[in-house]
Amino acid sequence: MEKNERFENIYSQGKVHEVQIWVDKETGVNYMFYHQGSAGGLTPLLDKDGRPVISTVDNK
User: Fold this and answer.
1) Residue pair 30/45 in contact by the 8 Å Cβ criterion
2) Secondary structure (3-state) at 38
3) Cα gap 32→12, rounded to integer Å
4) Contact predicate 20/40, CB 8 Å
5) Cα–Cα distance measured from residue 27 to residue 53, given in angstroms and rounded to the nearest whole number
6) What is the DSSP letter of 29?
7) Minimal CA–CA distance to 36: which of 21, 49, 17?
């Protein structure tokens, strides 16, 4: 059975204090995820004008 995952991790920095960038493969919207230990948060990644960063999505 093929596994179809909607989100793709495109960037990761750090070990204890980790920042990750995830892309929604359906919409192209980028999200920043930060976690430290058992605490974390997720937010849309915004450009300098406050609009969501959107990547080109290859819908095969």
Assistant:
1) yes
2) coil
3) 10
4) no
5) 11
6) B
7) 17
pLDDT single digits (tens) 13-55: 998 899 999 999 999 999 999 999 899 999 999 999 999 999 9
> 32 near 6, Cβ under 8 Å?
no
21 three-state secondary structure: strand
Contact 38, 31 (CB under 8 A): no
Q: How many CA atoms lie within 13 A of 32 on its CB side?
A: 11
Look up residue 41 and give its amino acid.
G
At 30 the three-state DSSP class reads strand
Ordered by start, the domain boundaries in the chain are 7-44
First CA to last CA across the chain, in angstroms? Answer: 18
pLDDT of residue 58: 82
Residue type, 57: V
